[in-house]
Structures are given as C-alpha cells and as structure tokens.
Design brief:
With 230 residues, this protein is an alpha+beta fold. The protein is built from six helices and twelve strands.
Length: 230
Amino acid sequence: MSDSSLRRPRAVTAGGRAFPVAIRRHPKARRYVIRLTAGGELRLTVPRGASIGGGLAFAERQHDWIVREWQRLEQHAAAWDSGTELWYRGERVRLVVDAEGVILGGHRLKRTHEAGGIRQTVEKFLRGLAEVELPARLAELVAARRLATPRVTIRNQRSRWGSCSTRGSIALNWRLIQMPPEVSDYIMFHELAHRRQPNHSARFWREVESLCPAWKDSERWLRKYGKDLL
C-alpha cells in the first residue's frame, strides 16, 4: 500500500511532544502495531476489520514505549564523541576521542576529517573487520557441517541482518561484528538454512534448529538490542 493511502487524523502526545499518526490498514495484520520513525511520526498498522478508533486508543496507551523509543532514536542520531557508547563484539564500549584519533575497544583509529567525522572513522574500521572476519567465520561453520560453500558479500543493509539469493549467495550486514559471536553465528546459520528452505516455513525452522540449537536465545538478543545497531 502506498504512502498516499495513509491518513493522518491526529497526533499522540508523549513526553510533552506531539507525534503525528499515520494510519495504514494491512490485510495480513493480526493485531495493532505501532512504529516510530526517525522523523517523529507514529506508523499505526490496523488489521482488516479492526476499528481505527481502537487503533488510536492502542497508540495512546503506548505512552511509555513512545517516550523510550524517541529517546533511543535521538541518541542513535546524535553525533559521536568521547563517551559515546556502542556495541563491539557483544559488549557495550565507550569511545575515547583525543587529539590523535579514536580509541575503540583497545584499537586506536586514525581519525578522518571527512564528513561524518568520528562516526565515519569507527564505522569504516568495523566494516573493515567485518569484511575480513565474517566470510572467514562463515567458511568455518560451513566446513564444520560439511555444507556447500556459498558466495558471500558484506553489505551496509539498513533493515536486515542478512539475506540469501535465489542462487544461494549470502549477504551479511557488517554490523554482525558488533554482536556477540553466538548471535552473529546464528544469523549465518539462518541464511544457510535458507539455501535449503527459501521461506520461513516449519521446515525452515527445523533446519535452523538442526544447525543452531540455541537459536532462540539469539533471537531474544536481537529483539532486545538489535535496534541499537541498525
């Protein structure tokens, strides 16, 4: 459904701020869902047959969540400097910025003076690590389970952790380098399972279970902390 189908009848006030509401009906939705965009708009999904009034009442009841989510988005968009916290190999670490550059987890990085500054310096370093370490780790997992070796690329995906093409090629988000190793491994197993089951059927999840028995723990981590990375 296109953005032209969205209706904006009102705003929800939370934390002293008014958040405009965009309402979208979705035929496959089973419940009301709200999402807060970086621009401060609430996206409300209404199931087919459910009332818009009920959806707006649902959004009003999410006051505390809206405040927390807006604070998270503001923090995520803020310029990086000394003291900024971010995930690195599954741990929260603080950046140290001085005249010589940036220190991240014991690594001293030469600071770039291009647009983006500190953030660009750190993300360039992390992506470089990911391009070396993630394909190597995937190769280890494949070899240990005697699976066919896929083609793998590292990408800057903004809404997913990985993907598997119809030809079996796997793309991984460089941000996997920020996760605990077992969570990063789970995402790789998830994409490897898609090579045999290109869907999310019961068969697919059985395939995941056979490759990664503790996958549910990793899913819980992603639900709790994944938004901090994207």
